[in-house]
Amino acid sequence: MNNKKKWTIYVIHHSHTDIGYTERQEKIEQYHVDFIRQAIAICEAAQTEDRKEWAGFKWTCETFWAVEKFLEEATEQEKEQFAAALRRGDIELSGTYLNMTELINFELLSSMLARAGNFARPLGLQVKSAMTADINGYSWGYAQALADAGVENLLSSIHTHHGMFAIGRKQFPFYWETPKGNRLLVWSGEHYMMGNDLGINPDGALSYTIKDEDPVWGISKDHWKLAETRIARYLDQLEKEQYPYDFVLVNVMGLLRDNSAPNPGIITFIKEWNEKHGDRVELEMTTLNRYFDLLRQQEAEIPVYSGDWPDWWSDGVASTAMHTQIFRNAQRTLDVVKRLDPERKLAASSDIAQAEQQLIMYAEHTWGYHSSISEPWHIMVQELAVRKEAYAANASRLVHTSLDAVLKARGDVLLRADRAFTYKVINSFDSPVEDLAHFYLEEQWEADYFRQGLEVVDEQSGEVVHHQQEKVSRGYQIAVMVKLGAKEEKRFRIREASKTVPVTTSSTRLRGADRIHDIRDIFPPVQEETPRLFITENHIESPYVRIAWRAGEGIVSWIDKQTGREFIDPRQAHGAFTPVYEVTPGGGDDQMTVRRIMGRNRKGMNVQRSEGLLSGVKEITNGPVYGIIELKYQVQGMSHYSLFLKVFKDRKRVDVSVRIHKDSVWDPENVYVALPFSAGGSSELWFEKAGAVLRPGVDQIPGTCTDFYCIQEGLAVISPQGGLSIAAPDTPLMQTGPLEYGPRLVQGQQEENGHTSLYAWVLTNYWETNFKATLGGFYEFRYMLQWGSEADTAEQAIQLCHSANAGTVAFRTT
């Protein structure tokens, strides 16, 4: 050991928690309960003369989820032993609940991260530190939620496969400033099994991060030689890189697998090492709090960074897009339930608690069994997939059961023969909303009451309001535009029409007998009592917007008629909502290899990219409230792709529905939907992420991902001329980096004033282990665009996203 410094290597012993991946989810739960039992037994034995060689053993509970599961099963004696080990510092809690994706919203994130501290306080303990493993990024609000929970320190044990550490270096501390100005001390560490690479576990040596002349995956032929060589080289490299400390932190696992048991052989080896090399390199098993206390005592300056830390590993959500959509709708509906029932008097508290837990389990970072790509037909692949998807389904069922209970208490009338055609509409928000409310006539038998037509009456004012009727799968949908104040509710009644509207033809509208309108009218249209939208084969126009398209290219213009602003950015490569399909040929059955080498590109160098070609236009409806036009595209990888544009007649709003029938393909694929929008010359793009509204590529930590982001309810494009709000209820991934294969740029490497593209990344299956192998199936993804004075700031625009996604609450009443 010829290193220049006298070194101390601090060792965190833990089990990485993957809910699935290596086993069935319920088996993983059993494992982690037993791991804590094993850790308690080791700590208890270390207090005796029989196992004094285990003295100094420390175990860190990586996730509080495992602790919760243990406490549910533990005997009183086991609980007392666990508490005693916590007080001695032999076992330590992490403030982390699970290793999460960025799907989860801030409210649920905050309550989840508070659980460890809530448990510890009655024991006289404080949870000051947290650790994560595998994931390599977090929403900016994650830092705030940790700070709000009393956590002061975070160990980030990143995994650089298809990801990368922040700042441009690992084994590096920095203060992460939260949106509210709190500071979290972060240690950006090594992979969570680096201690195994260094040979600190003689029963489980690894060649994962370190690829040298002595490859090993298990027990080395000469373990001492491997450990001495690798530790010396590792510390020497740190010295060459001007590492400022004489100590370093590594994690170690007891077995060579995720979801791994504690191993007292590690502390035995540490003692043997210290007897041999402790004068130059000392090993010490430690805990998070002890390490961060040491770090805070150092004189080396620790930099401060503020902003988002995008997670490279949130992209699994697009491999199960349908269930992610169900998850997001359930999470959103749960918020509606809580706003309608703030004191939790109407819905069962147990249902809400279970729904929250199911949402958490779906948003956890594990996305399937480890061989889902190589053997997608395997029973374990199928079992783990349906269990993962069931979390979203269970959450949806529980949330909607709760909503049903709330609405019943507020006057919802179920099916009966003599139901009145009376409806209640509620705004669940603390701010005004103006949106559609939908009333339903159940099938033909209710519509028969209104053979001569119907009208909708505002019961408070007595006024007849414009409505629009459509035949849908449920029966007949009647839409009215409703304006509601904060928490306001209104009642409406459907009655027979007092007059009918005659239908005839026009002598000046240049629409042929074939119903095709492909010549612009020469004479202006006659003013109607309830004017309709102007729709041709080439554009759709309201008093507020004109949207135009061209064959092959798709939507090429989106003009705000009141200001003349063009919302389509001419620098973008694709028209609005044009599909872009990518496939990387997988070379037959060798699906793992082609994916493994993709790195941060999420595609291969030989990627084949194609864009959808607009091939057909069809008018669906044109009524007093809105008009709908369908644009059909031809695109590879999909047997069907169409856009339904719902243009509102009296509002600055367009709703877009993207409908896809995706072919089943085993090769790695990506599907993007172009969002080439701008709000003017100096537009800024804003995303809502959990706990913060921020500018991608601006408000984030140096060295972090700039290619894509996992957002919450939507995004906004803001300029001095005004803003554009884009609600995205179904597709959380937004791609801002170039689609082309090539070097990826992280925060700080972008060109100043460089061009940024924008796509919704709606589908992917590129990961080589645990993504769903096929994306085949039917999908509908929705987007709601609004502009005007209500969207002039990012905060206003994002609030529009929330209200548009949640909508009004409308139901039949007495």
Explain what this protein looks like in three dimensions.
- By secondary structure, the protein is of the alpha+beta class.
- The protein has 16 helices and 40 strands.
- Strands 27-28-29-30-39-36-35-32-33 form a nine-stranded antiparallel β-sheet. The protein has a six-stranded antiparallel β-sheet with strand order 26-25-31-38-37-34, with no helix packed on it. Strands 4-5-7-6-12 form a five-stranded mixed β-sheet, with helices on both faces.
- Helix 6 links the parallel strand 4 (129-134) and strand 5.
- Helix 12 runs antiparallel to helix 13.
- The termini are far apart.
- The model has no long low-confidence stretch (mean pLDDT 94).
Task: List its salient traits.
single chain; 40 strands; elongated
Distance between the termini: 84 Å
The strands making up the biggest β-sheet line up spatially as 27-28-29-30-39-36-35-32-33
Instruction: Report strand %.
Output: 25-35%
- Characterize the overall form: elongated
**Helix-strand makeup class:** alpha+beta
Radius of gyration: 29 Å
Describe the sheet with the most strands: 9 strands, antiparallel
Share of helix, binned: 10-25%
Q: How many individual β-strands?
A: 40
Average predicted confidence as pLDDT: 94
Low-pLDDT runs of 5+ residues are none
Number of helices: 16
